[in-house]
Design goal:
Elements: H1 4-29, H2 51-62, E1 68-72, H3 81-88, E2 92-96, H4 102-115, E3 120-125, H5 146-149, H6 153-161, H7 165-173, H8 190-198, H9 204-213, H10 227-247, E4 251-256, H11 261-264, H12 270-283, E5 286-288, E6 302-304, E7 307-308, H13 310-320, E8 332-334, H14 339-360, H15 379-387
Parallel strand pairs: 1-2, 1-3, 3-4, 4-5
Antiparallel strand pairs: 5-8, 6-7
Helix pairs in contact: 1-7, 3-13, 4-10, 8-15, 10-12
Length: 388
């Protein structure tokens, strides 16, 4: 009969072996891409991996390559650093993050201004930050990494070693495609272009976007919950970001990104107008592309109801650098002098859309044949790329 001492030793040995197996599995499978991120140069990680860590590590290891940084949520993934260089001559890194929010933006800005020789921060506001101020409850890949938060990196590494091994097993057995980002940080949108091209037949893409718009129409008649409270937190952090940049002699440029027309509806409210006005009061002149225009009404410029293609990003940059925009209303420079009149006109434009919806059951979408279909101009080249 096994003695109590031998039984205890055996039990402890079994536990240690189990822990070793779990830690080895999590380290070598690395389902979140945490350990692969540590050198800052793993560009094969899927956009649904722990990109917050990968981008922070990339900045840590390769900041000597960059003069400026784009900070924003997932919509900013369609902004190409090669195009941004035309804006001011700076070499940019795109550190967009999935479901970005102001706590993320503050963490990245603070790390950048304190640990790099950055000349400029370009902050993209997508308006969705008003919907949810903090998204860490979404899961592991949405948490602010310890390298940015200042928490223990050892404790963080141990936590990744001790994750539920089920996640590693699922990672080993899944057969889904992965979509890594490009080396300069932006999303690779080729598969989204391919999807549109493949679904233009029988208006498949039109119905995909139109059906995806239905959920937003309810907000013609009610405001999203929590916007006011979240707005106050966003403004508090925006002030902190501005102060950090000023203290370190880093230029801060802020702009509101383009939204697809139907998504605009869910944020349209007095809370949004206050947020826009307070942003201008804090930051000075702010470009706004979240505006009423035929470009945002053209669903072919967006690869889903929440995100735009490269062409929208390019047009925003061209407009910010002073080129005359061929589409009326796309891009308005908000100033402390004109913000009030801009908001009043915006309210009138909103009522036009609402009336059209009440009469037709949808928004006045721009037809595919319109010049405002920016993506159509590149269909030919993109189709060739897809065949390589």
């Amino acid at each position: 009969m096994m003695s109590a001492k031998r039984w205890s030793i055996s039990f402890i040995a079994i536990i240690l072996v189990c822990l070793l197996v779990i830690m080895s599995l999590n380290y070598f499978v690395d389902p979140y891409g945490y350990f692969a991120s540590q050198g800052g140069d793993n560009y094969e990680l899927d956009e649904n991996d722990y990109l917050r860590e990968q981008k922070a590590q990339h900045i840590r290891h390769f900041s000597d390559r960059y003069d400026a940084y784009l900070v924003g949520g997932s919509k900013a993934g369609a902004i190409q650093p090669s195009k941004l260089k035309e804006l001011d001559g700076n070499d940019y890194y795109n550190c967009w993050v999935l479901s970005g929010n102001f706590p993320d933006y503050l963490a990245y800005v603070k790390y950048i201004v304190e640990n790099t020789k950055a000349k400029k921060i370009l902050l993209q506001i997508s308006t969705s930050e008003l919907y949810e101020f903090n998204r860490e409850d979404y899961g592991t890949i949405y948490k602010v990494p310890a390298i940015l938060s200042g928490e223990s990196r050892v404790a963080e590494a141990v936590s990744f070693l001790m994750k539920n091994p089920k996640v590693s097993w699922e990672e080993m057995t899944k057969q889904t495609e992965t979509y890594p980002c490009k080396e300069s940080g932006e999303r690779d949108l080729q598969h989204y272009y391919d999807y549109q091209l493949e679904n233009l037949v029988e208006n498949g893409f039109y119905w995909y976007m139109r059906n995806g718009s239905v959920k937003y129409y309810q907000y013609f008649y009610k405001e999203r919950k929590g916007l006011e409270e979240n707005k106050e937190e966003c403004i508090r952090i925006l002030k902190e970001i501005k102060n950090l940049c000023d203290e370190h002699g880093v230029e801060l440029q802020v702009y509101f990104a383009s939204l697809f027309a139907s998504q605009m509806i869910q944020y349209e409210s007095d809370t949004l107008y206050d947020f826009m006005e307070e942003t201008v009061m804090i930051c000075g002149d702010v470009w706004c592309f979240n505006t009423y225009n035929e470009v945002c009404l053209c669903m072919y410029n967006y690869y889903n109801p929440s995100h735009f293609y490269y062409e929208i990003g390019d047009l925003m940059i061209d407009t910010m650098k002073g080129e005359k925009c061929p589409f009326e209303g796309f891009g308005i420079l908000l100033t402390r002098e004109n913000i009030g009149s801009v908001i009043e006109q915006r309210k009138k434009d909103y009522e036009v859309w609402k009336t059209y919806y009440e009469e037709n059951g949808l928004l006045p979408f721009t037809p595919r044949e319109s010049d405002a279909n920016l993506v159509a101009h590149t269909y030919g080249d993109l189709l060739k790329q897809g065949q390589k």
